[in-house]
Write a structure and sequence with these properties.
The chain is built from nine helices and ten strands. By secondary structure, the protein is α/β, with parallel strands linked by helices. Helix 8 runs parallel beside helix 9.
């Protein structure tokens, strides 16, 4: 990507964790491009940077405020790392003229600490993936053999910035106002990696963060050379990882139910919300 901001969608999004989406939706801004090349990417069309519409920083400021006016619980920056300088300027300007909802940074965690430090004080909620503890899997599936150490350092910086989770609202319907939710997507046939990720997160952060175990892996790409990635996670596989989560003592978090591995959960990157009406 260049220094020209490109986004593919800016709309209310209802498929995040309940404390992020709530009933009104999260104001998701999907940025084009990604620092990873995961061969199973669900947002492949925009991750490779070929789709999206160029906008100015002025327009990004307007989009933030328009989503707030639509009732968004927060502004959800999806895969924003390569546009941090422009996003930082837009957030500062938007906050000066009325942006007041929490800001969510939604990332694959292949980020430098120095880049994240540019956002210190501007981000309320970090929503990082932790994909791999196994470097060989990171190389095989995402062309990023250094992913484990990069993601560890990045998430450590995110937790430092946000501190312990803070919620507001009635019990059972509360929204996160500050904190970190570390996500992990279970991959078919790679259960030991999932267990290692969960153990690392819990051993390192305990109840300081929330952990979100995801069951939405959807085989999409044709010609995938890895047979296990051509199928969904089985119920038995997910149950095994969930049982491990319970066994090691994780209590703060979210677990996706079955039937989430569907293409209907993937938004249409059709430019909704990009142009000013």
């Amino acid at each position: 990507m260049t220094n020209e901001i490109k986004i593919a969608r800016a709309a209310l999004h209802f498929w995040e964790e309940p404390c992020i989406s709530g009933t009104e939706g999260s104001g998701a801004v999907f940025f084009s491009g990604c620092s990873l090349r995961c061969i199973y990417c669900q947002n492949h069309d925009i991750a490779i940077g070929e789709r999206g519409i160029a906008i100015t920083i002025d327009r990004l400021v307007e989009i933030f405020l328009e989503l707030q006016e639509k009732g968004a619980n927060n502004i959800n920056l999806v895969t924003p790392g390569h546009f941090i300088p422009q996003i930082k300027e837009a957030l500062i300007r938007a906050k000066e003229i009325g942006l007041s909802v929490p800001i969510v940074y939604n990332t694959g965690s292949y980020e430098t600490v120095e880049a994240l430090q540019m956002l210190d004080g501007l981000i309320d909620i970090y929503l990082p993936d932790f994909k791999y503890m196994d470097a060989s899997l990171a190389k095989k599936y995402s062309n990023a053999p250094d992913y484990p150490q990069v993601a560890k350092a990045a998430i450590d910086e995110m937790v430092r910035q946000t501190g312990p989770a803070v919620f507001a609202g009635e019990e059972g319907d509360s929204l996160m106002k500050r904190g970190t939710i570390a996500r992990h997507l279970v991959l078919p046939g790679e259960l030991e990696n999932s267990k290692q990720v969960l153990k690392y997160l819990y051993d390192t952060y305990g109840n300081q963060i929330y952990i979100s175990l995801m069951n939405q892996y959807t085989p999409l790409l044709e010609g995938n050379e890895y047979p296990n990635l051509k199928r969904k996670v089985t119920e038995a596989e997910f149950d095994e990882v969930f049982d491990y989560l319970c066994k090691i003592g994780i209590e703060q978090g979210y677990v996706q139910e079955g039937d989430t591995a569907e293409e209907s959960f993937i938004p249409s990157f059709d430019g909704e919300g990009v142009f000013k009406l």
